[in-house]
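Protocol step 4 of 6: structure prediction from sequence.
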Amino acid sequence: MITMANPQLENGYIRIATELMDALMKIRINGEARQMFDAILRKTYGFNKKEDQISAGQFTELTGLTKRAIQRAREKLLKMNLIGITNNGYTKCLTYSINKNYKSWRGEPKKVTVTQIDRGCNPKRLRKVTQKASHNRQTDNIQKTEHVRAGAHDLSACEPILKHKQERIYIEEKELFEFWNDLKIIVHKDIKPFIPHLSSKLKTYKMTEISQSMENYALVLQGNQYYWSYKWDLKKFLTQANAMDRFTPENFKEWDFLNKEEKERGKKKDEQHDRFKRKNNQEAFKGNHRDWETE
């Protein structure tokens, strides 16, 4: 006999502002990213907390996702600006929070279908382009189906479609440019001078890696706990040797940029943590020893 689920408020519930829930209903969060977002919501608002340290193991337990899938989902949620992630440098476990400023969210683009009847060549000629846009160049999936009758050479009627393809070329560059300006490091008005440099970086790095590098740079530049004060414009950040590269997710270590006072404070915390841990271990050992003597 199959038993039915019977959830009750008495067993726990999640408090969420109606305004925030309304905003969530209007944004597209697909697949793995939605699962991870719900897990963060559960671990924070579900326990009346604004933020929480959540390990990869906890995400796997809550969602069933693999570690690789969790990494992909985290990159997407960061790119959409739906969550905040901090690392105080003293632990490997990241701290997650929900970004309540829903006006700064970046939704996923909707599926676009363009159907064009080529009136200039043949009434029966049909070109259909289905584009599923994605922010990640490596997962960008463009599906095209063409049904073209032989002998048709005039492509003038297909100009809107060709124009649509051309506009799509610099989607990632434009998003990275806007992301840089949102960080308020040095704001640029015209994207054209930066397109070649952004395109060049996109050949080496994923879009999420570049945006995370920008965010890491803004973090150490604008935070009072960091010694870094040198301000680059976007061109120098992308092209100067050892500029962006030191802030990539692979190379960036927040500890290296902390000022002397913060490092001393961090060392004291680590020492206190070690003393507390040793004390607990000693007490546990004494307790076990007493149990053995009793036996």
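Step 5 (inspection) to follow. The radius of gyration is 26 Å.
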